[in-house]
Amino acid sequence: MSEVEVDLIEGFRNPEHMKALAALIKKECTSKINIMEVCGGHTHTIMKFGLSQILPDFIEFVHGPGCPVCIMPKERIDHAIALASMPNTILATLGDMIRVPGSKTSLQKLRAEGKDIRSLYSPLDVIKIAKENPDKNVVFFAIGFETTTPMSAVLVQQAIEQNLSNIFFHINHVTVPEAVDAIMSGGDAKIDAFLGPSHVSVITGFKIYEPIAETYHTPVVVSGFEPTDVMESVLRIVRQMNEGKSVVENEYARAVSREGNLKAQELVDTYFEQREHFRWRGIGDIPMSALKLRPKFSAFDAEIVFDEILPKTELNDHKMCICGDILKGKAKPFDCKVFGKACTPSNPMGSCMVSSEGACAAYFKYGKLNLKGAKA
Amino acid sequence: MSQKKILLSHGGGGEETQNLIKDLFFKHFDNDILLRMEDAASLVMNDHKIAFTTDSFVVSPLFFKGGNIGKLAIAGTVNDLSMMGAKPRYMTCSFMIEEGFLYSHLEEIVITMRDEMAKSGVKIVAGDTKVVPKGGVDGLFINTSGIGEIMCEDISAHNLENDDVIIVSNEVGNHGACILATREEIELESNLQTDCTSLWKPVEALIDAGVKIHALRDATRGGLSAVLNEWAVTSHVCIEVDEAKIPVAKEVRGVCELLGFEPYEFANEGTMVIALPQSEVEKAVEVLKGFDETAKVAIIGKVSDLYRDKVILHTPWGSERFLEPPKGELLPRIC
Questions:
Q1: Looking at the complex, does the CB of residue B319 fall below 8 Å from at least one CB of chain A?
Q2: Average pLDDT in the A24-29 region?
Q3: What does pLDDT average to over chain A?
Q4: What value does the mean pLDDT take over residues A95-120?
């Protein structure tokens, strides 16, 4: 049998397919549709590839709450800072979490002061760090939605199996359906349909969106992150709207099923349980929207072991910052008075500008050609 | 209030690096030669026009596919001179070595440096060696300085004109992606090699062929994006590039997609960007195709006056966006 080379990138960016999808959407879309892209990854695809520019004006994209860095409240960043400031401690976390300012400083600035803070590519590196530093406490500041939770669960499992008593977990894993429900149940969100993040559904299955589609009569299309994925998902939303339907569709059938990855779900369930309360930055408390370690693993739980050093005060964003409204889909980055002026990626005031996955960061980096008056 | 500190992002080659250079170094070292911000200083000494430059190399890991820190230390300085149209003549070299560093590794690096120097004929004529206690440096740091004889004048970031054509000499992002993929914490399996090489020979051939070059720059830290933005701002022009025409290796695209980066922001160590008048394009491309290191040359865009000081990226399906200069540390995406 001859080998067929599968191109996982170019095939999903084929200019002819893109143009054909744009033409179909233009032809079939006859009235205004507000589509919330729940995940920051989709915001980036839309902005980076300029999808709004080739879609009809009827299609309006509204950013949602799906960036794990953006939704992290300041007090929990202060937790990370307090933990990293402990003597004999290595704090490890993912991606640009280290850039986010807490009430006084950020992990990045603390690192420049000599604290041992590691930005990881894979959570499993924590095992290696713990083994190489047996005389130090290694704290993993775990963040992310359903996509990254199984990796944290594997990490807990391995720490236990390998008898590593110097690893501790500060768990900040959050869940998509509760956040979407919180936004929709508020009653003032003008959202007609959702783009569901495919990587979440690879783990959870697309069934998690069925109650949302049913309760709020909004189509949900679970979409991949390549430009043709998003374009096809938009077309499916347009067709559902035209037919008066509101069901969950799976555009990312190449990796997503209705039930998802049962083994990963079981693993998550073994080590984590729902928190009764978790305050989302800019949004406020969303009950049962986050996870924590089960009580039987409390010896690994940084929030319990180091409780006495963790600050307890709740902290809100800067008054000028409208990140909360952006995360709720009520405002766009361009609506913010400080966007691109006092608030830039180099000097962020709000969480949506801090994270490279945030809506403001995406609009700042890719979206300025859409801004009125951007022409020099 | 806590004191301002230097962060890793200040060395990333993007906006923060530019701010540090302008707000601190230029402020206190202020002179006309430095403020021209070219790859090397253009000097006149007793009627001889020379280019003078220096660079420090702190790469991790020290050995990677297609090269090592020594190859970088020679090619980097040779290329800084070449980008000024200067024939690299003499170099100095300083080694800062961590206690316990393997002699065999140092020898391998030195031999690589010797071989790389042979490509341009440059010679190391002075040097310095320091050994610092364990932890003082990460294995080995190398600094090289170089002097070259200017063979072609008036190549400058200030010279871009409306309707100039923009060329890249090779695929972009190979070095940055190769280093990232080789890092211990990622360990991606790929055949991706650095593009690290000395570019004097192709530059000399362009000069010998009489190609009129407006601007020339090796797209090192900050990558293609940093070079184009710097040129657009320095020459007060708009640069429009066609995304479909920018050569990017599949492996580089793969690394970028996996970790959430853009190939245009990745470092290159043997790929140059050229701005030149339309009339010179055909000749330049023909010359560059004659060298292995520049055989993948591609015409990627043009200079216009659409949005001054800005770079526009046109997608193959008809949308467009600004190609912003890189900012901050290169941090991988979370999910």
A1: yes
A2: 97
A3: 91
A4: 90
Peptide bond between residue A219 and the one before it cis (omega within 30 degrees of 0) = no
A372 pLDDT exceeds 60?
no
Q: Is A19 on the interface with B (CB under 8 A)?
A: yes
Between A149-161 and A262-271, two packed helices, what is the crossing angle to 10 degrees?
Answer: 60
Res A374: pLDDT: 36
Residue A4 pLDDT: 58
| N- to C-terminal Cα separation, chain A | 57
Query: E strands along B204-283, which residues?
Result: 215-218, 238-242, 272-276
Q: Does residue A370 surpass a pLDDT of 60?
A: no
Supply the DSSP string of A351-366, one letter for each residue: HHHHSTTSHHHHHHHH
φ, ψ (nearest 5 deg) of residue B301: 180, -165
Which residue ranges in chain B fall short of pLDDT 70?
1-2, 184-187, 328-335
N-terminal to C-terminal alpha carbon distance within chain B = 35
Min Cα–Cα distance to chain B from A219, Å: 24
Predicted pLDDT of residue B334: 61
Residue B76's CB: how many other CB atoms inside 10 A? 25
What is the value of ipTM here, to two decimals? 0.80
Q: Which of A13, A96, A376 faces B307 most closely, judged by CB atoms? A: A376
Q: Does B4 touch chain A (CB under 8 A)?
A: no
- Per-residue pLDDT tens over the stretch A317-329: 788 889 888 888 8
- Beta-strand relationship, A193-197 and A272-274: unpaired
Q: How far is Cα B325 from Cα B225, in angstroms, rounded to an integer?
A: 6
**∠B233-B236-B238 over CA atoms, to 5°?**
85
Pairing between strand B272-276 and B165-168? antiparallel
Please report, for residues A41, A44, B136, B315, B325, the alpha-carbon distance to residue B322 in angstroms, rounded to integers and kept in the order given: 19, 14, 41, 11, 9
Q: Are A129 and A89 in contact (CB under 8 A)?
A: no
- Asked which of A40-44, A88-92, B100-104, B172-176 is least confident by mean pLDDT, the reply is A40-44
Is A112 within 8 Å of B7 when comparing Cβ atoms?
Answer: yes
Most B-contacting residue of A113, A116, A121 (CB-CB within 10 A), to test interface: A121
pTM: 0.86
3-state secondary structure of A27: helix
Cβ atoms within 10 A of the Cβ of B33, count? 10
b/e sequence A115-129, b meaning 16+ C-beta within 10 Å: bbbbbbbebebbbeb
Residues 6+ apart with CB under 8 A from A241: A31, A33, A192, A193, A219
Q: Between chains, do B331 and A357 touch, taking CB under 8 Å as contact?
A: no
Average pLDDT over residues A223-229: 95
Provide the shortest C-alpha distance from residue A330 to chain B (in Å): 25
Instruction: State both tokens at A349.
Output: 């005031």
Chain B nearest-CA residue for A16: B317
Out of B6, B254, B331, closest to residue A112 by CB: B6
The pLDDT value given to residue B168: 98
